[in-house]
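Model it.
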Amino acid sequence: MRVDRDEVGRKIDYPGLTYAPINEQGVVLLFGTMSDELGFSVEAVRQAFPDAVAIDYRADPDRGVRKRIEFEFKRSNFARQKHDTKNCDIIVCWDHDWKSCPIEVIELRSIVRKEKLEQAKEEIETKKPPNRALERKRLPDYMTSWDARLKWIEPPTRDLAEKLIRRLHAELPGVQGKPRFRWYSFYHKSPFVRKNDIATILLGRKTVRLSIRVNPQKFSDSFGLFKPMAGFFYDRDKERRAHVSADNLEAIVSVARSAYQGLDSQ
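Modeled.
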């Protein structure tokens, strides 16, 4: 089917992808941005069936299992194309519309929705806590809990994340840190809700990233480490994100400190 070059999906503002996939290529791109956080290390992507080979570390971060992956926009496309399920381990799709599928399916839409729901709930202060256990029942612990994620990631990644937390606490005066969902956020004041959040740490199995809230008129990054984001944790023009390593840790902290100082008083 021909797709007009200006046609886009529903706006999701997911890190790395502004709009929802409308075809298989969009699913491939979105999975690529999420793969490390989901627990996969992609070995190869190809045009022949199955589309990709990846190492699956979801069950054990120290011992992965090689899996064959087929990408589909809708899961039912797999059956229509008469692919042999014996030659594929996982279907990665945007739309889960084949309830009787005999192999594992990862529906990216559900994952995006759950993360967006978590963000939206932080905008509303209620006395009655939400039933998060019910909302997250389909996701593994490392996708919903910071503590579980720390246990799931590789030890060097955990060490780097914990060092980053200590440095930010030391360099951002008055901030308070708190795990939320599968992230760790810093707040310039209570209550601990999104509008008071100024920095967030994200962990993949082997990666540490830091998103910061910035004042675009005052933000400066002489190191060139932080890239603009579409707007996931913070407003579209106020979010910057960087990959953190042992080599650039002090530069990351320096830019984050400067960005914090440049924020307008709230």
